[in-house]
User: Fold these one by one.
Assistant:
Number 1:
Amino acid sequence: MAQATGQTRSRDNDVRYQTLRNTALVGAVFSAIFTVLLVMNLVGSAVLGPRRETRLAAMKLQIQKEPRNQQLLSDIRRLDLKIRRDRIWRLDFANKATFMLLGSVVVLLVAGRIAGNLKKDLPRPQQQPDIGEMQIEEAKRARWAVAGGVVVLVAAGLLVGMSGWVRFVQAQDAGPAFASAEEMRQQWPRFRGPGGAGVSAYTNIPMRWNGKTGEGILWESRVPLPGRNSPVVWKDRVFLSGADPNGRQVYCLDAAKGQLLWTGSVPTVPLPQGKEFKLMEDTGYAPSTMATDGRRVYAIFPTGDVTAFDFQGRRLWHKNLGLPDNSYGYASSLETYQKLVLIQFDQGDGKEGKSRFIALDGTSGQIAWETKRDTANSWTSPIVVDVAEQPQLITVAKPLVVSYNPANGAELWRAKCVGGDVAPSPICAGGFVFAIEPYSQLVAVRADGKGDVTKTHVAWHMEDSGPDICSPVSDGKYVYTLESGGLLLCINVADGKKLYEMDVKEEARASPSIVGDKLYLLDMKGVMHIAQIGPEYKEVARCELGEECFASPAFADGRIYLRGVDKLYCIGKAP
Amino acid sequence: MTRWARILVLAMTLLVPSVDALGELRFPPPEFETGYQFPQTTVPGPKAVFHEYIDSAVLLAALLLATYLILKRRSRRAIFGLMILSLLYFGFWRDGCICPIGAIQNVTLTIADNSYAIPITAGVFFILPLLFTLFVGRTFCGAVCPLGAIQDAVLLRPVAVPPWLESGLRLMAYTYLGAAVLFAAIGNSFVICRYDPFIGFFRLTGNWNILIIGTSLLLIGLFIGRPYCRFLCPYGILLRHTSRLSKWRVTITPNECVKCRLCEGACPFGAIREPTGDWPRGEYKIAKRRLALFLLLLPILVAGGGWGGYALKERLARVHPRVRTAERVFLEETGQVEGTTNASDAFRTTGRTTEELYQEATAIRGRFAVGGALLGGFLGLVAGGKLVALSVRRRRTDYEADRAGCFACGRCYQYCPKERERRKKSTVGVTGS
């Protein structure tokens, strides 16, 4: 009877075991099916998704070039919708299938465990060896295992120790955070070169070229976005900026071949409600010339966005100074002093106290110093010059010529001697600062004063000359001014007497430059008039570029860089 | 490997991609000018405080119930049931957060940083399991911890790990504990949370690395009981040493051990200690000399570890995000690397100077000099202490659960004939009345 009961129990157990095993098997099959489906879903997302997105990105780029292509726009919308639908479907599927898979795994585990328990072997202790010896042996092995663990830890420590680490002290070894004054003099680091003088450090500059035939043109390169700012040059790189209503960019080109090395995008901030961003067409969206301290390159835009990039194209910082209150649109170019970026931020009519001069730390973008200015909005660019045995930061804006200490912004002297909407930038030559009041006069102020020097240091003013846009240029003996209508005046530095006036009969926006004993005048049609420096006008060459020019030329060793409305040209000989 | 094991291995392996599929990136909003007004971005509000109280209350209730089931009821089935409920609540329902293992870091940061206020739950979750362990052994591990539960649930074919190997492998848990404390205190990094191997399963999403680690541990866990708890869990180290002091704890037999040896293979975690045998002749003198040698070696190991940790200060400091950012920015500034990272871009928008950043990173490295030395010294102490402990012979007369290593899972009860006798009597008592 007992045997029969035992057999029945065993049969019941077998049946139960079979049932559980089959249940577990079903769980396993379902797990496998859902897993395969999920893997396929994942592969589909990983392969199809990026492929479609790449196509969409390419189409989006294309639509920027063909904004009126309705078919393309419709294709983009269709593809975008398809991508989104696919993603949502896949996410939904993954969600549901994961829960199904989890359920299957639970069934598999539960059934498997119970089935396993049904077939569990009962413990059958064997004959025990000498337990004392065994435990001593066990402890011995454990000690070795711990020793092995220590060895592994030491090895891991050595491995970690072998990885390199960065010594920040190398930063000091890398040299100062800005180029030396001597280096700066050899380059063209800002609008109109070192000190904003418009004077080339090199005399081996070409005097013959033709943009139409390609004669003397080393390379030409299309600039993606327009701008009236001038190129700046640092060794093997040329920098300039461009902008339109939709974006602002900074470009770095290879000085040797004209290849665009990198493009840096400059963000902006949304305008406050009710504010409108209006610019004169003549000003454009990128009128301010960039500046470099030899380590970083800086740019400013009429939106008040100022930014720094390193020479590899990494944006180091960006700041929005607020939309300038400027009647024609902000156009002052940047200057640098050591690692400071100097910004003349003149606004309003001068009575509201909006104008200020800002010096930013070039490495961080933080304000190094800032000073208020009693001036109206202006379009002049500041200059830093070594004069009267000290570095001076000189600015011109109605009604003042002001000199500051560029290191801390302390005012050195001021002269109340200019009026109007001032656009020509000051220059410094022969111990004088030359400032222009448009349509009115050229003023010479001695730069060795202190405090208000209006009555003591204004050496002379010459009322026949008052260019409205172009800045003057001087070799220390003669100062030349060029009116936008094309009238060139030569004035004696010592006494302010006009030596000659010459109408080049072409409109001009670019400021004149001096190379050795030659005067370079670029008119709006892109024709460079090269004349002999001296008390009489004597044209020695005339070279055509074949493209309209607004920007001032940049000079480097044996080369001229000219920016036309579309392209940047390098004039010179191949090395 | 049996067929069952093979099927399970396959199923668990294939689980990984399915979980990751849920973690797909969300896509950007449409760029077309359709006149659609984007709703204002909202963020979920802070977790209600009452949730914290509920979690703490559930933990307390679970610990009380676990203590009753483990010590009084002595029912593996009931313990397993509570374990699954804890897994569902603390694991899947509460997303595996907060847990006492991660709470180590909150407590550490509270001690190291005066400005940090520890959340109530973190404090409760850290202290309650320790308190219970101090009195009743590791009941938290046996029936409440979701990380232990998920491993326990998948244990199908236990394979015994030799006890000597276990001693060596456990050094990993000490290292993890030391590193986690150091990084939480001065590294601005909660590594236990970041590398929680099972969080991806609890949340049904996660990154590949963690899911692969978690899946690997579960696959190992099919054969080796609770690998994370035994060889990695930093909180387990605290519980081990607290449990040594516990007044009450799991006993295999409800009354007396008859040395039947039926329980020898009952514990899948190798936590059953057999009675000690006789001391072999001549061994005593050798053991004394060995113990003296290891006692002398102990301070050398501590000093050596301390020096090693100090020497690694710059490398260890890389755990701190500020140091990593400083190094990256420096490499970018000096042109040693191309491109930028999100961290370096973000730094540059702060307006701080690189010099300030480098100075801060250098100061953090200085803190790691002290912290690294302490970590190294701690590991030297652990290794030396283990060598000393393994050279000391303890006397045991019965089969008993290891004071430190027993997870209080209750598997061993049913193997004891005395326990079966007790159960039979209590059943008869109940039916007889």
Note: Chain A touches chain B through 84 residues (CB under 8 Å).
Number 2:
Amino acid sequence: MRKLIAVGLTAIVLGLTPRLAGAQSVIYNAYFTLTGFKQTKNGGVAAVRVTNKDLLRALNATGNFDFASGARILLWSTDDELPVIVVRQGTARHATDTEVGDYFTLSDSGAEVHSANNLTSWANWIFDFGNGQGTEFNLSGITTLTRGRLRQPGGGWLARTAQATSKISGPGALNGGNCVLQGIVYVMQPVVVAQ
Amino acid sequence: MSVRLSSYAISGAAGFILIAAGVLGHWTARLGGAPANPEAVPLPVVSQYGPRHDVIGGAGARQLVHAPVSTAAETAAQPAIHAPKAPVDSRDPGADLMGLAMNEDAASLERILAELRNPNRERRAAALRAAIQFGSRDAIPQLAEAAAAAHDANEKAELRDAIEFLKLPSLSEVLARRAPAAPEP
């Protein structure tokens, strides 16, 4: 009987563990897939694709970074707040994270709505990029955030945004010329970071 | 004897109740039913992302949000606008492929493209996203093969969109063409 009671207590403790979880940071990989449309000199339109590698090279063009192949763009959210953008090089065990907030930021318009069960939210995110070398954009659009269970490093679970998809568009400049851009940003692969 | 038996009975009942409570807590958590369980933690009243937001809706506010206009390929590639009834599984079946996509070597691209033939739909979708991020036109022939073999119209459209996307010059290519030539030593 004691064994039975012990098993019962263990079950309750396990059930409570996630509820007792404190504030944590969560990092996500962000993947940009953008198309830019630019007026050409002869009156035509030229399209350009922009993905993570292009953004990393554009950051390198500032002269302040030297991101190599394999670098990742991360969104780092602390205490469930709006994430900041960082670039990670190396592996998870030997990673170097670099803040790029002087050139690449994420903000929101302030409005946010939630589904009745609070598992999905919708917000308006704004990605602002500018490397001072002719590549810049200010893209905004509806972002769908889906909540899920994230495994914590020390065990237990954390209820946080598990993935987000941002459909964005707006003005910018590519190679110094004005353009408009549109595309999608996938925010996925959340990892809870031990404080 | 009867005292001992009743003692056993009470202990047994207590153990049963404790296990039932634990199991119930676990399953209500999985189903997202009770607000106190960890997987159905309500979003903060003020905001999920900081105190400065204006919450313009609560329960039922989703009626104010309309699905944005999107192509069939985009619709298939992103979560539905409707709220899920249970928390999503945060594990990404394509995390390894997206990691490969950040590399530049041909072996990484081959591993990504091989997954276009995976029987799992999510895995194929992840491979497609990874191929786009990898950004090489060398992927186009295999994407075209996959498009031809795809039975699902949405998947076919996604693959064709990806091909058209990869045909475009990348920003890096445009900048490299315009970059001034290095001075002769």
Note: Strands of chain A lie at 25-39, 45-51, 72-78, 84-90, 95-99, 104-114, 120-130, 136-151, 157-174, 177-193.
